[in-house]
Amino acid sequence: xxxxxxxxxxxxxxxxxxxxxxxxxxxxxxxxxxxxxxxxxxxxxxxxxxxxxxxxxxxxxxxxxxxxxxxxxxxxxxxxxxxxxxxxxxxxxxxxxx
Length: 98
Prior knowledge:
Blueprint: E1 2-3, E2 7-11, E3 16-20, E4 24-35, E5 42-52, E6 64-65, H1 75-97
Antiparallel strand pairs: 1-2, 2-3, 4-5, 5-6
């Protein structure tokens, strides 16, 4: 994932998606089943979710989770990253996104 003044880019193995800030409705952390290390198996954890304008929330994969390779066993690092992305979303969306 990449976050900048233009939007959020989600990069996976075969697909890269960029969502501009004007399409973002909100970014929030939620307790829910998340994929464990990207595998089909799910475990209970936290996920950073983004809601896009014109899309159902379940259609957009989580931006981050406590059980992906970057944050496995490091909950405080996940909290810092999630807080930072939420702050960027609040700043870059501006008054039209609130």
